[in-house]
Amino acid sequence: MESSVEKGVWDLQDIMKYFGKSSTTVWHWRKKGYLPKPTYQMGQRPYWNPEEVVEFLKNARGVS
């Protein structure tokens, strides 16, 4: 896991990189509700507030 949150918004690639997870794992996180709802969406692409994602996952149980 990287030590800091540098970008203002994250897309799926940023979440994968930060947590060292595959696209399949991040997809499952979204499907199971392990990620918060996106802060906003442009077309089909969701974007999140990085601090919100990190805090949400710190508080989640059973995330692998």
Can you walk me through this structure?
This protein has 64 residues and is mainly alpha-helical. The two termini are 13 Å apart. It has three helices and two strands, in the order ααββα. It has one domain (12-59). Strand 1 and strand 2 form a beta hairpin. Helix content is 44%, strand content 9%. Strands 1-2 form a two-stranded antiparallel ribbon. The model has no long low-confidence stretch (mean pLDDT 85). The relative contact order is 0.22. It has helices at 12-19, 23-32, 50-59; strands at residues 40-42, 45-47.
List the helices and strands and how they pair.
Elements: H1 12-19, H2 23-32, E1 40-42, E2 45-47, H3 50-59
Antiparallel strand pairs: 1-2
Q: Residue ranges: pLDDT <50 for 5 or more in a row?
A: none
Percent helix:
40-55%
Name the average pLDDT. Answer: 85
SS element count, helices: 3
- What is the total number of structural domains? 1
Query: Approximately how much beta-strand content do the residues carry?
Result: 5-15%
